[in-house]
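Hi F.,

I've been meaning to write this up properly since the lab meeting, where we talked about keeping a consistent format for the predictions we share between groups. The idea is simple: the sequence comes first, exactly as it goes in, then the structure tokens exactly as they come out, then a line or two of notes. No screenshots and no reformatting. I'm using this chain as the first example so we have something concrete to point to.
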Amino acid sequence: MVCQKNINRRVRLELIMRWLLQQHALYKEFRVVSAGVEADQRRYISQALIDEVRMVGVPKGIISKVKRDYRAKFLSRELVERAEVIIFAEEMQALQAKHDFGDIPHLADKIVLYRSLIRHDGGSEVDFADTWGTLLCDEIVMVLTNNFNSIIV
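Output, unedited:
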């Protein structure tokens, strides 16, 4: 899960994906990691975001673990090499990853744009814009649930 600064969009995606993996009894088989192309390591997870993911049903245990272990990460070569799937919030970030890590075998096969998942749900073809302070978890749950099997395969 990649966004610009690894503080907002990716946190929602990471928490919800961890929850979905838990619901499918796959939590221990997959590692969900998120990063930013310009990660700000001084940032924290806001209480508003925590309240938002609680409202859609993400269990307190998942929230507590992510909150406790939270540290914004830069998108690194190691993360890209180890990933099976990389969901990018915006096309610009995917293009930057292709530029920075284009020599990694099968990189293009790993890349998924969040907007392509929305399109499958009949939504728009716009990027997952930075939405600090906006309630989006219902949409993310719907999009990730409807595309779950194609994401983890």
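Notes:
Residues 1 and 33 are 6 Å apart (CA to CA).
The chain is about 50% helix and 5% strand.

If this format works for you, I'll send the rest the same way.

G.
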